[in-house]
Amino acid sequence: MSSTENADRATDTARAAHAPRTADAPRTVVNGGISFWYAQDGLPAPREPLPGDASADVVIVGGGYTGLWTAYYLKKAAPFLRITVLEQRFCGYGASGRNGGWLYNGIAGRDRYARLHGHEAAVRLQEAMNATVAEVVRVTEEEHIDADVHRGGVLEVAYTPAQLARLKAFHETELSYGEKDRELYGARETAERIRVADAVGSTWTPHGARLHPVKLLKGLAAAVEALGVTIHESTPVTEIRPKHAVTPYGTVRAPYVLRCTEGFTASLKGQRRTWLPMNSSMIATEPLTAEQWESVGWEGRETLGDMAHAYMYAQRTADGRIALGGRGVPYRFGSRTDNDGRTQASTVRALREILVRFFPQLSSVAVAHAWSGVLGVPRDWCATVTLDRSTGLGWAGGYVGSGVATANLAARTLRDLIQRDSGQSGATDLITLPWVEHKVRKWEPEPFRWLGVHGMYATYRAADRRELTTHAAQSSRIARIADRVAGR
Ligand SMILES: Cc1cc2nc3c(=O)[nH]c(=O)nc-3n(C[C@H](O)[C@H](O)[C@H](O)COP(=O)(O)OP(=O)(O)OC[C@H]3O[C@@H](n4cnc5c(N)ncnc54)[C@H](O)[C@@H]3O)c2cc1C
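A: This is the predicted complex of the input protein with flavin-adenine dinucleotide.
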C-alpha cells in the first residue's frame, strides 16, 4: 500500500474518531454494490461480450448516459448506421448508475466560456442546457421510460450569512444568463417549501427534475437496442486510436471512434492525466414516515442543494427516502477508482451529519445504503465535446458534477458533428456552442495531483467551518484562494 493510501486511511480513522456525535449511530448500512439504485431496481441481465474482430460505422466506448444518448440520437438521425457500444462492465456501471438524479440545467465551465467566447455565447449555452432538461423528459415520455421523473425544479438553500451572500450573487448571475423564471426566497418562504435548519434564504429554478438514475439508464439502453444498436458488455477497451477500438477479445474498426468514459478515462492508454476521477459519495435513508415528511415539508420534491464550498445535493426519492450526496474523500492516489461503489466509513458518517444538520428532526432515521462513484474533472473544470475531423476520434465529458442533463446535450452535439463531417448535414446551432472543441491542458503528475486536490478540499472544508462558526457576512478568503489554485 502506498504512503498516500495509508494517509487516506489514517485521515479516515482519525476523522471518524473525532467526528461529533450529532446523530444516532447508523444501523446496518449496505456499502457499495454499485449504488442504492441498483439495490432497489436490480442489476441488469448481462449482454454478450465482443465475440471477435468486427467493423462498424461508429464505435462508442462506454455505456453511460453519454455513450447511450449518442447511440440513440445518431441511430434516430441515420437508421442505416452500424453502431457498436463497447462497455467494460455493464451499461450504467459508472456515474450514470450512481448519481443523485438531479436532471438540471447546470453545466461545468459556463463562466469560463463566457470569458473566452463572450457573454452571448455563454447565454446560448445556458439556453441549450435549459432546453436539454425538457428534452430528456420528452424522450422518457416518448420511449415510455418510467424513471420516476418529477419536474419540481431545483432549490438551493443558504444557512449562513456568507452562504446567503453567495446565494444572492449566484441568483443574479443566473438571471444575467437569461433565466427568467428563477426566484429568490427569504427565510420564511424557504421554510414554507422545506424545513432546513437555520435556512436564511434559497433560490429556485424550474429548469430541473428529480429522477431515478438507473431506471433512466436501463430504459435508454433498451430503447437504443430496439433501434438496432449493438451493445457488448464485459468488454474493456484498452486502447483507442484512429479507426480502432482495441479490446482483449478483438478490435472494432470504424471511421468514427467516440470516447465516452468520463471518470474512467485515466485507465485508457495515453489518457492518464486527461480527466481526473473525482469521487462523489451518497447515502440513502430508510423510507420516512408520513409524520417525518410532515416535519420536513419538501412537497415540491425539488432537487435540493446548498451553497457550502464543499456542497451537498439531495433528492426526495419516489419511495419516500432522502438520497443525499457530497464529496467525502475527494480523490484516490494515481487516479484509481472505487471498488464497485464502496465508500469510506468517514464519508458515510460525514454525509449522515449533513443530513442531521439539515434536518435535526430526522436524527433517528437510519441510513440504508452508502455508495460512491467517479466524475470526470478536466484541469480547467470545463465540460467539452469534440470531434477531431482529421482522425475521426471524438469525445465528450468532463462534466464535473453536472452530467445527467449535459450528457444529453453532448450526445446531440456529437450526432451533429458526425453528420456534418460525413456530409449528411451542415452546421447546426449545437456545433457552434462555445464548449465544442475546447482544448485544455493535462493534470499535473503525481504526487502533485493528489496533494493539490486534497489540499483544495481541506481548504474548502475549513472555509465552511469558519463561515459556520464566525457568521461572517462574506465568503471566507481561503476558499477564494483555493478556487484560484484549483484553476476553477
Ligand atoms: C455519486 C455521484 C452523484 C452524481 N450526481 C449527479 C446529479 O445529481 N446530477 C448530475 O447532473 N450529475 C451528477 N453526477 C455526474 C453524472 O452522473 C455524470 O456526469 C454522468 O453520469 C456521466 O455520464 P457518462 O456516460 O459520461 O459517464 P459514466 O456514466 O461514468 O459512463 C462511462 C462508462 O464507460 C465505461 N468505461 C470506462 N472505461 C471503459 C473502457 N476502457 N472500455 C469500455 N468501457 C469503459 C464505464 O464502465 C461506464 O459505464 C454524479 C456523479 C456521481 C459519481
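The first strand starts at residue 30 and ends at 31. Confidence is low (pLDDT under 50) at residues 1-26.
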